[in-house]
Amino acid sequence: MAMTMTELANRLNLSQSTVSLVLNNRDKGRVRPELAERVRREAAATGFRLNRAAADLRRRRSNTIGVALAYSNNFYRAELVTALHAEIIRRGYRPLFAFFHNDMEQQSATGLLLDNNLDAIITLEPQWLPDHLDLPVVSLFHRDPRFDAVVQDVEAGLRLSLECLRKAGHRRIGWYGYGVDDERSRLLPALAREYEMELPEAFTFRSSGIYRLVDERRTFDLLREVPRAELPTAFLCHNDAIAVTVMRRLHECGLRIPDDMSLIGHDDIGLCERLIPTLSSVGYGSRELLAGKLVDRVLTRLAHPELPRRIEVLPPQLFQRESIGAPRY
To answer: Which residue among 126, 149, 306, 310 is least packed, with the fewest CB closer than 10 Å?
Structure first.
């Protein structure tokens, strides 16, 4: 017969509340670390398993955090999903993920989450949530006025890239990114002018279908047709997943990085340091750091719903690697 928590507490000569705090991962700052470790060792040795469903029923909570994200074929999101899964479990909750490709699937994924008994939601697309939602919500990278958010300082990240390229001698750049509704695509033209950099329209690609666009070789035909002296000497990419494809396409066009073209991505995924050449990228902290901030924010809101809305802004860092060089033309 399975051991109960009361029996485990008696075996350890501790109160049931102390054992409960430890096994529900709520012991930090409340139970001495050596005592918490003793409880966990004894629970493992006796094969004790916490009946979370019964505990949740008593507390009238599900102990579940819903997460709505775009499909993780983007390297960055794949890393983030792994980090969020680990962090939510570490904090004593269960994650429920819902993924989507497009607007229709976003609505479906949001509906899937709301059909479940959740304690809180972390979402990449908060606009699909109803106005009157009695749940803590944290928005990822979007400043929805209704919810807490963790966002990137996108302008500062672009400035780091432009400052680096200008210092290296670049004066003509190109862009591969999302449509004009995207913050980076919207800000870049004015920032390029501020840094006295040309951003030729022919080499500025802004599209909601940017992944499909860079997959097509014909998108890069102009790089073969225009004299090299008239080409951009550097490209910026919305993220590293796009930059990786652009690296391949530039190679197919006979353009060497960084000899003929410099390249900077965003997100600083793990792959950046494994490429040849290594890819320069703007990062905003590790995925583990971001996951911790998102879960911290949603649990703080769960415990203190009366607090004012909070926006946390992540500062950028440029990781300058082999893909940046001085222009030849």
So the answer is: 306
At residue 255, φ and ψ (nearest 5 deg) are -100, 125
Which is nearest to 244 in space by CA: 203, 220, 275, 216?
275
- Are 32 and 178 found together in one domain? no
165 lies in the same domain as 249: yes
Sheet of strand 148-152: strand arrangement: 94-100, 64-70, 120-123, 137-140, 148-152, 311-314
Q: How many domains does the chain have?
A: 3
Provide the CB-side half-sphere exposure for 97 (13 A, CA).
17
Can you tell me the distance from the alpha carbon of 73 to that of 159, in angstroms, rounded to the nearest whole number?
Answer: 28
Same domain for 306 and 209? no
Range of the structural domain that residue 110 is part of: 62-152+286-312
The residue behind tokens 């992540």 is: 314
Least confident piece of the model among 16-20, 78-82, 107-111, 247-251? 107-111
Tell me the per-residue pLDDT of 298-307, one tens digit each, with 9 for 90 and over: 999 988 989 9
CATH number at residue 162: 3.40.50.2300
Question: Which residue type is seen at 137?
Answer: V
Looking at the fold, whether 183 and 220 belong to one and the same domain comes out as: yes
Torsion of CA 286, 291, 292, 296, to 10 degrees: 150
DSSP string covering 131-198: SS--S-EEEES---TTSEEEEE-HHHHHHHHHHHHHHHT--BEEEEE--TTSHHHHHHHHHHHHTT-B
Q: Quick one: 183 and 258 in the same domain?
A: yes
pTM for the model stands at 0.78
Digit-coded pLDDT (tens) for 122-156 = 998 888 888 878 889 999 999 999 999 999 999 99
pLDDT at 57 over 50: no
